[in-house]
Design goal:
This protein is mainly α. The protein has a domain at 29-174. It has five helices and two strands. It has helices at 2-21, 36-42, 44-83, 93-146, 167-174, and strands at residues 31-34, 150-153. A two-stranded parallel ribbon has the order 1-2. It is elongated and about 90 Å long. The two termini are 50 Å apart.
Length: 212
């Protein structure tokens, strides 16, 4: 019996090295730090795209002022005319028509500005997406060159040793691609009209299990 126990224990001990090989400790991590915000703001095509986006914002501001100033003037004039009416008297047909025309113009202006603002927001998101698609492979390439096993963004760190910062190297790789970024996002996909939702299939009554 003792021989059997000892033999079983020896077999178990002989199995341990093979099992340990399957759970080897991970090698030490080699960390690299990348300032993606700086790259997105200073890479050659990024800076050009950001300048164009800022121009769109400036044009929108100018357009808002262009349509807003006459509306403000007309609104003040209408308010003065309404205030001048005797108490309890309604605006005559001409003034009422003028008020309706003002409200229509005001609503149209708000719709126009809001639409253009939403388009600029989509353009910004579209540009950021394209920049990210260029930065990611550049980071991987520099990591492989430097022997890094993990990369973290500079914004997620409190303090770093400058020797682990690979931002300049990544920026150089990104700048190798000189193709301009598209600053005009595609129109959002529209839901097809006239399509009815598929009818739900009626549920069949299933027999209930009998109680035991």
């Amino acid at each position: 019996m003792n021989k059997l126990i000892l033999g079983t224990a020896a077999a178990a001990l002989a199995f341990l090295p093979a099992a340990a090989l399957q759970a080897q400790a991970l090698p030490p991590a080699v960390v690299a730090v990348v300032d993606t915000d700086r790259i997105a703001g200073t890479c050659t095509v990024c800076a050009a795209a950001n300048t164009q986006l800022q121009a769109q914002v400036t044009q929108l501001q100018q357009r808002a002022q262009q349509v807003g100033q006459p509306l403000q003037t007309e609104g003040q004039a209408l308010q003065t005319a309404v205030n001048a009416l005797p108490q309890g008297q309604q605006p005559d047909a001409a003034l009422a028509a003028r008020i309706r025309a003002f409200e229509t113009q005001q609503n149209n202006a708000r719709t126009e500005i809001a639409t253009r603002e939403q388009q600029i927001q989509r353009n910004v998101a579209f540009v950021r997406q394209q920049i990210a698609e260029r930065i990611q492979p550049a980071i991987v390439s520099v990591m492989q060159q430097r022997g890094a096993t993990i990369a973290i963004d500079r914004g997620a760190t409190l303090a770093i040793n400058p020797t682990v910062d690979i931002t300049d190297a990544v920026l150089a790789v990104v700048n190798q691609n000189t193709a301009a970024l598209n600053i005009n996002a595609p129109a959002p996909a529209q839901q097809p009209t006239g399509q009815q939702p598929a009818p739900q299939q009626p549920q069949q009554n299933r027999p209930r299990p009998q109680g035991r």
